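Severity: low
Component: inverse-folding endpoint
Summary: output formatting inconsistent between runs
Steps to reproduce: submit the following structure tokens with default settings.
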């Protein structure tokens, strides 16, 4: 519930009809902290009340109309004066006049389109909010209530594995394989690395998850890379013929779905970066883009069970293949 005082005569607040039961989620603010907000999905109705409470009953409050807006907007930090609104809905709650006693005004935005996920990044912010306004002669009185929107996806129909090679002629030849190319935000990345030729002394090897945020167009394009996770694969020298398994749990990291060309303003992409460091501190790396997506809440399976299914499937066991398909049916059902 949000209060805003104008003068000493009244207070205004916005209350959602389902505030008691609607789920709240943490979302990062511009200063890097996390606050909790009401969670909505695309197509859901947003309804509630705008309460105008007079501090001095009997003393009138003149206004030029009362309204509420539902807004979805993108703000580029290098262009803060311009807010790009992709959703803008308005409901007039009261015509110009005066209020002589406290009043409540019902509002409802039915089946609101919310096409993009809420996002706060290095150079851009995509947000949704309700804004109640009492229009007055000198100063409009406004109060905003922010909400968070999550976009849900279904299981990708095509989800092929990733197979790549890293090589330095006559020195190093590595093959690495990840079990798929598209992962949901609570997924497990399962893979293997094969050392086919090793003639340089490798002392350290890791996989990084890199988030790349791209904003702007043409000459005004900004790229911001952020290393979200570092996963040590090995510490020490591998030998020819060695195979090293990878199992990386995504649930513990601050990830968003992949976002491509959102309203022609920004993109957020994720990459797996394989890094090798030799004894002379030289770095060798290979990068591969992966797609991240958000699935709806389902009955949570244990992480070890989830990893076992992914690992068995990766090994190509026929029995585990059917088990995985059954698990997928249960989750999507």
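Observed output (run 2 of 3):
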């Amino acid at each position: 519930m949000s209060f805003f005082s104008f003068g000493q005569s009244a207070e205004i607040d916005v209350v959602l009809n389902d505030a008691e039961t609607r789920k709240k989620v943490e979302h990062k603010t511009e200063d890097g902290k996390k606050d909790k907000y009401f969670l909505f999905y695309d197509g859901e109705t947003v309804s509630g009340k705008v309460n105008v409470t007079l501090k001095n009953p009997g003393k009138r409050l003149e206004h030029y109309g009362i309204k509420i807006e539902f807004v979805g907007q993108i703000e580029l930090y290098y262009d803060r004066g311009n807010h790009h609104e992709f959703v803008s809905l308005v409901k007039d709650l009261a015509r110009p006049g005066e209020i002589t006693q406290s009043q409540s005004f019902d509002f409802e935005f039915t089946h609101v389109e919310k096409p993009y996920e809420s996002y706060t990044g290095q150079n851009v912010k995509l947000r949704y909010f309700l804004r109640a306004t009492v229009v007055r002669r000198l100063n409009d009185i406004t109060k905003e209530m922010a909400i968070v929107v999550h976009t849900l996806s279904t299981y990708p129909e095509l989800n092929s594995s990733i197979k790549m090679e890293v090589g330095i002629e006559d020195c190093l030849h590595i093959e690495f394989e990840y079990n798929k190319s598209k992962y949901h935000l609570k997924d497990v990345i399962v893979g293997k690395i094969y050392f086919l030729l090793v003639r340089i002394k490798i002392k350290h090897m890791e996989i990084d998850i890199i988030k790349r945020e791209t904003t702007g167009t043409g000459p005004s394009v900004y790229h911001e890379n952020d290393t979200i996770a570092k996963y040590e694969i090995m510490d020490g020298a591998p030998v020819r013929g060695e195979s090293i398994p990878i199992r990386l749990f995504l649930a513990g990291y601050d990830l968003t779905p992949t976002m491509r060309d959102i309203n022609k303003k920004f993109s957020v992409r994720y990459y797996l970066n394989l890094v090798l460091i030799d004894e002379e501190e030289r770095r060798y790396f290979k990068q591969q883009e992966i797609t991240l997506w958000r699935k709806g809440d389902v009955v949570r399976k244990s992480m070890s069970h989830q990893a076992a299914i992914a690992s068995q499937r990766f090994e190509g066991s026929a029995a585990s293949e059917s088990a995985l398909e059954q698990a997928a049916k249960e989750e999507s059902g």
